[in-house]
Give the backbone structure.
Amino acid sequence: MRISEILNSKKTTISFEFFPPKKAENEHTLFETIEVLKKHNPDFVSITYGAGGSTKDKTIDWTLKIKQTYHLNPMMHLTCISSNKETVDTIAKTLKENKIDNILALRGDIPKDFNPSTMEFKYAYQLIEYLKRNWDFSIGVAGYPEGHPESPSLEKDIEYLKMKIDAGGEFIITQLFFDNTKFFDFIERAEKAGIDVPIIAGIMPILSLNQVKRFVEMCGATIPKKLIDSLTGKDKEESYKIGTDYAIKQCEELLEGGVRGLHFYTLNKYNATKEIIESLF
Ligand code: FAD
């Protein structure tokens, strides 16, 4: 089912993100995670895609499996940085043949040894334009409450986000963030710029200080000092409890503020996400 239609008919959506395991021996963890989280009736689940295209086949396989085996509503991530039109068409055809309606259209991070002369799509908005012209999908795009690391300013960031919506993006899923004021400020800036599509909050339950530091380094989000202090020197169990409690409070405040959806970056683990959802609903 098209995510844009679900968003039209529901106050708040719940969704989960998974990544295709690299090693076969880790697949059972994802199967188990899907089994457990399925019970929470997600409106959709999304499957990530390697920017360099290395996980392409696995992403497609898992997207189909999630639909056929688990009867969930999948959204496939598709990065364009190293995709050409032929690859996009092949993937789109496979998704259509399997009645999959949703794509998260992304640029992807630029790999270190990347040769830009091979690019057919430079930015995500070009992929969206291409998909809209040639295929019929409900298209989501990425948004950055604290700005994308390469953006020269927050103003430019919103300007480029608007280009993705004007090109046909129907909803936005945000990068992870830990400070809700940044999210609410982002919504305000987006609205001022004329962006009127639903904005879904990306939530990452913190499992340890090292894990969260690694992620924010990659995506440019900030961790509030108070949160760093509370995690410092804590063992695995304590960190899990602090991180889960933090995410519960963060989600409660977002729900009170009228957030249109909560999208959980599960990292293929179910414990924290399950606990958060059970506490919220
Ligand atoms: P774009 O919107 O194209 O933006 C990229 C950069 O270019 C930004 O700095 C933007 O400000 C700038 N820009 C955009 N348009 C223009 C323009 N016209 N002129 C000049 N500058 C411009 N990565 C993966 O590899 N696989 C995934 O599965 C994946 N899933 C993600 C899911 C979510 C919800 C989010 C938030 C991110 C995800 N990412 C994923 C990360 C994403 O690919 C990176 O953040 C990437 O660097 C930017 O992708 P984008 O689609 O936002 O790019």
